[in-house]
Amino acid sequence: MAGRQGAQRPNGATQGKICQFKLVLLGESAVGKSSLVLRFVKGQFHEYQESTIGAAFLTQTVCLDDTTVKFEIWDTAGQERYHSLAPMYYRGAQAAIVVFDITNQDTFARAKGWVKELQRQASPNIVIALAGNKADLAQKRMVEYEEAQAYAEENSLLFIETSAKTAMNVNEIFLAIAKKLPKNEGGGPTQSRQSGVKLNNEQTQQSEGGCCK
Amino acid sequence: MSRESTPSNLLRSSVDGYGFNKGENFDHESYDEFMSRYISVLARRASRWQALIGHKTRVSKSRKVKRYCRKGIPSEYRAMIWMSITGAEARIRANPNTYRNILLSQRDEHLSEPITMDLHRTFPDNIYFTGTEGFRKPLNNVLVALAHKNIERGYCQGMNFVAGMLLIVLKDEEKAFWLMDTLINGILPDFYAPDMRSVKAEQELLGEIIRWKAPELHAHLESIGVQWFLIGTKWFLCLFADVMPVETVLRIWDCLFYEGPKILLRVAATLILQNSSKLQACKNFSQAMDAFKEVTTSASCIDCHEFMKKCFDELGPFPSAKISKMREECLKKIY
């Protein structure tokens, strides 16, 4: 049962382009990075999500018109001291989601720090999305929508408020990123082997999470 | 040898002996099959340990005790043996008021806040860590006390899982505090330092060990973009807690507390080498990452007795002097 390569597709039947992108999630501890990924990849939510140690790797596929976009997702740990590990994960990434918690101003300030760092040190064409998570807790809101949106506009970021708990805008943020990514040559400078490559059809794996369904 | 589904299967508890919910992916088949064999091992080990310890309340280190630790400490003796062989027990006796005094003294919010945030995110699937009763408050106390005693290190995520597991076994927060403090200051490399240099170096070291023991596999993994720091951060920071099956983690710790951190490398290398054909078959990076996720949870990890044997018997020479020298080299490469 080891090898599951080979999408067993009749010869010649094309299903459009398949693009693969590396995406990294960054943001303060406990803002909901892992929860967003868990919602996107498995459609689940845990009220108490374990703290992420180091980073977790997951994949998920979305379909856009005739293009299949496979995300290779690095969900990183949020604690300040893990900061020194972050460049190892965002190096070569074509996309990033910087997450903050709309009920906590400090996490928004930290998100701005991440955006600055990505603009300075990540790939120049990286697509950055800002996610104001925990939108279901709007009654405890400390970061105004307009404030975050203005900041996102100034910095040419995608901005969406999300709720991993209710699933609001979770798929949407990944789709919005997928739309913005260049699908021709697989995106920006490919610095490492695993990033931004257009795959041959036979290399794809079926993903259960529901592409094109 | 497939076991039929008998009525007794209906009695399977959804919670294991340490309070963990087994979850929907729990491999009951392998676990039951293993436990039915392991029970006799446990009984034999228990009688050997009993003969060794008698009514003593502490043990000294000796070749025999080391050998016994490798074969596993029965749960009824585990707390006492861990406290003895690490020297934590002696430190409690020498510092009877320290723990209480730290907790009574003024707290630094900067140190306590990240701990509070992780309390409900530590073993959320364990019955002892849900709700306000149980180990949540002791966990908070242990981590806060550790952060204040070791101010320059503070709190590092990952410590929560180690301390949580210690509480489950020791059932005493002061003991958990001292054992963990002894680990941090005496047994482990400086894994929890804010610069994370040691934990990065340890992963490089794991890579070098694989290069040494299985050069082809090493070359293959590097050729598909695997870098060692992607693999082992949680392995080393959590000392395999929340990574491998609980019983296996405890067996690893039986050896770690006696022999030191080399055992973590033995375990890590064994996990990789016993899956070398699977890893070698990975055609790309994401396949490899999926395969690495499975190496810590496969049926061969559930059988902790066989697994520990493998760690010692099948790795070939693993001399401490060489490992220490390699570790130093790896540390030099990390800035």
Automatic annotation (TrEMBL), chain A:
* Gene Ontology molecular functions: G protein activity; GTP binding
Q: GO biological process annotations for this chain's record?
A: protein transport
What this protein is called in its record is small monomeric GTPase
Example of a GO cellular component annotation carried by this entry:
early endosome
Q: Give the Enzyme Commission number.
A: 3.6.5.2
Residue span of the signal peptide, if any? none
Catalysed reaction(s) here are: GTP + H2O = GDP + phosphate + H(+)
Per UniProt, the keywords (alphabetical) are: Endosome, GTP-binding, Hydrolase, Lipoprotein, Nucleotide-binding, Prenylation, Protein transport, Transport
Q: Where is the composition biased (Polar residues)?
A: 190-213
- Listed SUPFAM superfamilies: P-loop containing nucleoside triphosphate hydrolases (SSF52540)
Task: Report residue spans for region: Disordered.
Answer: 183-213
Q: Where in the cell is it found?
A: Early endosome
* InterPro entries, per the entry: P-loop_NTPase, Small_GTP-bd, Small_GTPase
The similarity annotation says:
Belongs to the small GTPase superfamily. Rab family.
UniProtKB/TrEMBL annotation, chain B:
A Pfam family assignment: RabGAP-TBC
Function of the molecule: May act as a GTPase-activating protein for Rab family protein(s).
Any idea what this protein is called?
Answer: Growth hormone-regulated TBC protein 1
In the record, which residues are listed under signal peptide? none
An annotated Gene Ontology molecular function:
small GTPase binding
| InterPro entries according to UniProt | Rab-GAP-TBC_dom (IPR000195), Rab-GAP_TBC_sf (IPR035969), Rab_GAP_TBC_domain (IPR050302)
PROSITE patterns associated with the record: TBC_RABGAP
Name the domain of life: Eukaryota
Q: Does the keyword Protein biosynthesis apply?
A: no
Query: What are the alphabetically sorted keywords of the record?
Result: GTPase activation
Q: Which organism is it from?
A: Pinctada imbricata
Q: Which SMART domains match?
A: TBC
Q: Where is the Rab-GAP TBC domain?
A: 72-260
The record's annotation in Gene3D superfamilies points to:
putative rabgap domain of human tbc1 domain family member 14 like domains (1.10.8.270), Ypt/Rab-GAP domain of gyp1p, domain 1 (1.10.10.750), Ypt/Rab-GAP domain of gyp1p, domain 3 (1.10.472.80)
